[in-house]
Design brief:
Chloramphenicol Acetyltransferase; 2 domains; 13 helices; 23% strand
Length: 459
């Protein structure tokens, strides 16, 4: 995320621009996290923790601006001053609403648009959860972070993960109105600020074309090898049709070691076990609705490692056919393990590594991006897994007891995001109720699919 120099702007990378332009075309793409706390943190201490994160991660003090030319990518523009009273807020749950009330607040965060004149994030402190405890509902635009970088930011918010920011010129106004805080931003770790069709072409035209040709050639091999990731691998389920911007949030959890043990029964991982649980859940949902459906198109997110000279949001993914018609839970697990092992051997498609094509994608018109997004993201279920901290953490003196993540459900019936933390795998499910006509039935079906997978590890 450290991608802008003090006072400098830069163009969004292709990955970032595609995610931003997708929201321009009507999608909602926030990454939402819910951290359950064992007490209520002091708001002043929490404010200091948030201010530290803003100083460490310059994108938290940037807004996105439209390009001056229609052939340019949108840009990250640093702001000289951030009003934390907008980005850090507090509320209390109405009495008796409990977990459902907290998920309702997270659901609002998942469906509300960002203010485009401000940085694309906010943190809500929710008090009155289970008596004297509290929770944090954290929201960031997907163009700023993927799952791994969101957890990196979460670690910096924690007391144990605190890093000392460097001095700079950013002015932070605290929620209490106490005036500017000690300023900061971090060193420039991103791409140089330039117009991809301007100075870069004039100054390094021949080098750019040569590099682009090599990258396109390499990417062409990746595209051919990963054609299953671009083509729809199965027909959509009739029970999961219809798309909207409405959302319902659900949660599940399982001991991490139990999931890991289940994956090992077929030589796989806890990630394989998680995917098999989702497939099993859809299987039981189909059976409960009287439908027999052999396979669904299933998307699995892949986070690409940052290059040595930058730390930006880069993503890829694969699509495969989830065997929802398979009755045997073990065979479901075996099949997904084989499928994931095969896809891991394929070269990843990196939207930022296509040379001149990357520049064209980053500057593409909204309508073109909408078509591209619909083609690339089309699936019935979207799954992602992010390994979180292995040990308990604290935020502003309050212990984090659970950590849930909710990924955007873009052009899919639902997304399922698994985050491991403190020996527990928490699964956040983001459901489109227009596609899933019976959300509670899906919840119970996913729970059954998870129990079946866990039973395999207990044999």
């Amino acid at each position: 995320m450290d991608t802008t120099a003090d006072g400098e702007s830069r163009a969004l990378t292709t990955s970032e621009a595609l995610l931003w332009q997708a929201e321009e075309s009507g999608h909602r793409l926030p990454v939402v996290g819910v951290a359950m706390l064992d007490g209520t943190p002091d708001i002043a201490a929490l404010s200091r923790s948030v201010q530290r994160c803003v100083r460490l991660y310059p994108l938290l003090s940037c807004r996105v601006t439209a390009p001056q030319l229609p052939v340019s990518a949108p840009r990250w523009e640093p702001l000289a001053e951030i009003d934390l009273s907008y980005h850090l807020r507090r509320t209390a749950l109405p009495a008796g609403t409990g977990w459902a009330g907290l998920l309702g607040l997270a659901q609002t965060a998942a469906t509300s648009p960002f203010d485009r004149n401000r940085p694309l994030w906010d943190v809500l402190l929710v008090e009155g959860v289970d008596g004297g405890s509290a929770a944090l509902v954290m929201r960031l635009h997907h163009a700023m972070v993927d799952g791994l970088r969101a957890l990196e930011l979460f670690s910096s918010l924690c007391d144990e993960g605190a890093r000392r920011p460097r001095p700079g010129r950013l002015s932070l106004i605290s929620p209490a109105g106490g005036g500017p805080a000690v300023p900061d931003p971090s060193p420039f770790l991103g791409m140089p600020s330039r117009n991809p069709f301007g100075a870069a072409v004039v100054g390094r035209g021949q080098q750019l074309v040569a590099t682009g040709l090599r990258r396109v050639t390499s990417a062409g091999a990746g595209l051919r090898a990963s054609r299953n990731g671009l083509c729809l691998p199965a027909k959509h389920s009739p029970a999961l049709r219809g798309r909207s911007q409405d959302r319902r949030l659900l949660t599940l959890s399982a001991p991490q070691e139990d999931l890991r043990r289940s994956g090992r029964t077929v030589g796989g991982t806890s990630h394989d076990a998680f995917l098999a649980a989702v497939i099993g859940g859809v299987h039981h949902y189909h059976r409960a609705t009287g439908l027999s459906w052999d396979h669904i198109p299933m998307a699995v997110a892949v986070a690409l490692p940052a290059r040595a000279d930058e730390a930006v949001n880069r993503f890829s993914g694969v699509r495969l056919a989830g065997a929802t018609g398979e009755e045997d839970p073990r065979r479901r697990l075996e099949q997904i393990h084989r499928a994931m092992r095969a896809t891991r051997a394929l070269p990843a498609i990196d939207p930022d590594g296509l040379g001149p094509i990357s520049s064209m994608l980053a500057a593409a018109p909204v309508k073109a991006v909408r078509i591209l997004t619909d083609v690339v993201t089309e699936s019935d279920a979207h799954c992602t897994y992010v390994p979180g901290p292995e040990e308990r953490r604290n935020i502003a003196g309050a212990g984090v007891t659970k950590l849930f993540a909710f990924a955007p459900a873009v052009n899919s019936a639902f997304s399922a995001a698994m985050c491991s933390y403190d020996a527990t795998c928490a699964i956040g499910v983001n459901v489109d109720p227009r596609a899933v006509k019976d959300v509670e039935l899906l919840h119970s079906s996913l729970r059954t699919g998870l129990e079946e997978v866990l039973f395999l590890g207990g044999k």
